[in-house]
Amino acid sequence: MPVSEFSLIDRYFAVQGLHRADVALGIGDDCAVLRPPADQQLVVTLDTLVADVHFFAATDPENLGHKALAVNLSDLAAMGATPAWATLGLTLPKVDEPWLACFMKGLFGLADRHGVQLVGGDTTYGPNTAITMQAHGFVPAGAALRRDGARPGDLVYVTGALGDAGLALAVAGGQTTVPTEHHRYVQARLERPEPRIAQGLALRGIASAAIDISDGLAQDLGHILERSGVGVRLDVAYLPLSPALIASLNQDAALTTALTGGDDYELCFTVPPERIAQLETVAAAWDCRCTRIGAITAEPGLRPIRADGSAFFLERLGYDHFG
Amino acid sequence: MPVSEFSLIDRYFAVQGLHRADVALGIGDDCAVLRPPADQQLVVTLDTLVADVHFFAATDPENLGHKALAVNLSDLAAMGATPAWATLGLTLPKVDEPWLACFMKGLFGLADRHGVQLVGGDTTYGPNTAITMQAHGFVPAGAALRRDGARPGDLVYVTGALGDAGLALAVAGGQTTVPTEHHRYVQARLERPEPRIAQGLALRGIASAAIDISDGLAQDLGHILERSGVGVRLDVAYLPLSPALIASLNQDAALTTALTGGDDYELCFTVPPERIAQLETVAAAWDCRCTRIGAITAEPGLRPIRADGSAFFLERLGYDHFG
């Protein structure tokens, strides 16, 4: 007997253990009814993942559930927002209950860790698996980290290491290989990115601009430059590379992957010189690296520079969905 | 030269004329930043439309843009919410700029009429066109129209006429025909539904429960019954049928279509007897019919009854995505 959309809701979506006090009405009506805090602004983001475009159809469903939420929480992190609620639009070619159970386990696992409640959604049939998630969070009025606040003289930082997800994609595409001892790390960096929520929160009042690196550092930093009307000098020798990336690619290939590989979900942000001491203080408590990689310039453009002062040439900046 | 995702945003998504004062940051950053009113609850809904599942791929894109927002505004209407903001997840197999221009024209046309600002989204490549929209609105605390408030003795009403969209789908499927003079009306009912926002707002404090009829009256009313722990006696002779439906189908087929046809986007709601005078007063100002079709019973189950008191038999209740 075919399972109905409505029993799927009861079995897989309305079963999260976490219940937030600010959810007046969750899954199971025409809409969710929510109580945003009176003294905060609401921060909203939406991301779509399509099978065989953004993920391999055979991806472990638990990892996929994790990632579908992680990419949205990463956008909240880039605004310095506290995560709160999520909604899920799920399109499936068939009802595969074990797949769905694993997918929701991965999603709820990450959601529970960040206090996020799934409050609604829509599950429909479609020929191709696709996931559209939306996440909601809060920031105090005026505290959101935007793309348009970078000023000449600000220093440029990134969290974590760059290029690992790009490396995993290159391995999957048969373009390179990774030493066995690094397999698990590289795959996890692609499939289970950790949204930098704590870092985004700590950067309120410190960063002048921030973005998450989902389409590649060069391209995403380019959005900060464009919105802020500035340029950047990037010291490529300072880019934080993982042991896995260094062990797998020659130096220029590693740097190119760090600059242009997509799916990294680290934060890139700018800090005015007078706030560097504050940054050093908060970053000392982070569970990931915080690395200075360049400086904002009045002269427009993105200029990756080698240690000897020569230009590091990039053929393309990053990932474009219709490029 | 291929057009990039980013120039699409500038050309088609960030061009709405309407600007709400409560949008601190709209399209163009990692997230939107919004200011919900301090004295209201936030109401959130999400709907996915997939090509060749929820709409024909050849559908006029302006109508499709209208409908993608309309189905979400219809959910807000069913909660009695005032619409405010929307986000758009759009998956496209290729960049067809004239198609996109028409789609956004239809979407913005409806959005402007209801004071809704598009504040964010995600545009990605995928093999199959799909649209996931989310809409946000407000209700005063505790005023949301829910599915679980129907009580025995409450009367059951619907807005507008029923079954027209189901008729249009039957015509498209070659199962029936419609007299020429009704073509335009029936097609518009399928492709350009008008969300019953004004009706939903007027029903605050009057309706004990409400739902929008997107999967067919019988099935959607069934959700009210299940959530409220009640049953219903439906007087099928009272179902509001359009002249087009009456002219196209025999009586029993017309009633079955009215009871089970999907895509109607009318409101079904229940009203306690002591509030009927209030309902009559507000409904007199509506631009659509308001018709009493039955009564809530303590005895569970959905019982459609003919004028002679005999049961009206239904083979299925409505549309199920995985049925």
How would you portray this structure in words?
- The structure is a homodimer of 323-residue chains.
- Chain A is α+β, with helices and mostly antiparallel strands and 323 residues long.
- Chain A folds into two domains: 5-140, 60s Ribosomal Protein L30, Chain: A (2-Layer Sandwich), CATH 3.30.1330.10; 155-305, PurM-like C-terminal domain (Phosphoribosyl-aminoimidazole Synthetase, Chain A, domain 2, Alpha-Beta Complex).
- The first copy, chain A, has helices spanning 5-13, 61-79, 97-113, 164-172, 183-191, 197-202, 217-228, 243-248, 251-260, 276-283; strands at 23-25, 32-34, 40-50, 82-92, 117-125, 130-140, 155-159, 209-213, 231-235, 266-271, 290-297, 301-305.
- Chain A is globular and about 65 Å long.
- The model of chain A has no long low-confidence stretch (mean pLDDT 95).
- At the A-B interface, helix 1, strand 2, strand 3, helix 2 and strand 4 of A face helix 1, strand 2, strand 3, helix 2 and strand 4 of B.
- Strand 2 (32-34) of chain A pairs antiparallel with strand 3 of chain B, so a sheet runs across the interface.
